[in-house]
Amino acid sequence: MRHVQPAREKPTKMKAAPAKGTKAARAASPRTKAPVAVNGTTTNVNKTRQRILDVATQEFSAKGYDGARIDDIMRLSKVSKNLIYHYFGSKEKLFIAVLEQAYQGMHEYQMTWPLDVSSPVDGIRKLVRSTFKYWRDSPEFIGLLNSENFHKGKHLRKSKLTKAGYSGLLGNIANLLKEGARSGDFRSDVDPVELYISISALAYHYLSNRYTLSYLLDRKLSTEDEMKARIVHIEDLTLGYLQYGAVGHKARSRGAA
Fold first, then answer.
1. 157 Cβ contact list (under 8 Å, min separation 6)
2. What is the per-residue pLDDT for 79?
3. Which CATH number fits domain 23-89: 3.90.1640.10, 1.25.40.80, 1.10.10.60, 2.40.160.210?
4. All residues at 6 or more sequence positions from 148 whose CB lies less than 8 Å from its CB, including other chains
5. Which of 196, 40, 43 is nearest to 106 (CA)?
6. Which of 24, 39, 114, 172 has most Cβ atoms within 10 angstroms of its Cβ?
7. Residue 38: helix, strand or coil by DSSP?
8. How far apart are CA 175 and CA 178, in angstroms?
9. What is the value of pTM for the model shown?
10. What ranges do the domains of the chain cover?
11. Burial class of residue 178, CB neighbours in 10 A (0-12, 13-18, 19+)
12. CA distances from residue 144 to 8, 65, 89, 107 in whole angstroms, order as listed
């Protein structure tokens, strides 16, 4: 973008304004241009873009991809529709950007999972608690995933940024399982991917369906005590599977008998 010329400059001849609705008109609109560069940095761009993403996350989560409307996102973000298309290109690309941000946040959280555990059993318990806490604190992400699974993951497949973050987490789980197998605490035939899916599903399903399950099963599943009990239940289920047939676990069981 050109810097503003000094006031002493001779006035230039005004050009005719482009017709409304044309590409030239959208390009000329001050609402679609990047903000003025100040001291080598662009001001307001990141904040405005992030505000749009935050509002879009709420709208897509609450209404799904099909139900969310760009007009509503525009109104709640307090920006023009042209600016949204300027930053993201289309509704689909905006939804993909929302998914990418959500997955990035999840992967960043997963990498804070403690590696300095006292034992493989302690590591699994912390993994369960960490996974449950993430889903409990991420209701918007649950809504986004419900919508994207309804569309069979077609938008996610158009992103190159969402898959890479799993490698670190799965590597940590694999190392924990190997340590547990060496110590005799865990069986040796566990697939880290299958284990992660199971732990995540046991937390995700409970939290995404707790309102209907609460009514149908006459349980107050949203209370803190119920959630703590659920975490212990997931820990026990997971460890029961991992310890089934483990050499060290069988030896300790015989000794206790």
1. none
2. 95
3. 1.10.10.60
4. 65, 99, 155, 156
5. 196
6. 172
7. strand
8. 5
9. 0.76
10. 23-89, 98-256
11. middle
12. 55, 8, 20, 16
Mean pLDDT over all residues of the chain?
84
Backbone torsion region of residue 55, taken as left when φ is above 0, otherwise alpha when ψ lies between -120 and 50, otherwise beta: alpha
Helices (H), the chain: 23-28, 45-67, 70-77, 81-88, 91-110, 120-136, 139-150, 166-183, 192-208, 210-217, 224-243, 247-256
If DSSP codes are grouped into helix, strand and coil, which group holds residue 244?
coil
Q: Which pLDDT value is given to residue 15?
A: 43
CA proximity to 245, closest of 168, 181, 149: 181
Would you say domain 98-256 falls under CATH 3.30.1340.10? no
Q: Which of 129, 122, 130 is nearest to 176 (CA)?
A: 122
CA distance 150 to 148: 5
Quote the tokens at residue 182: 């060496």
Closest CA to 71 of 53, 57, 54, 59: 59
- Nearest Cα to Cα of residue 76 among 57, 54, 55, 62: 55
* Angstrom distance (rounded) from CA 200 to CA 130: 10
Query: Cβ contacts of residue 149 below 8 Å, gap of 6+?
Result: none
pLDDT over 70 for what percent of the chain?
79
| Residue where the block lists tokens 């991420």 | 138
Alpha-carbon torsion 212, 215, 217, 219, what sign? positive
**For residues 243 and 233, what is the distance between their CA atoms, to the nearest angstrom?**
15
Which of 32, 38, 28 lies closest to 3, judged by CA? 38
Pairwise CA distance, residues 250 & 237, whole Å: 17
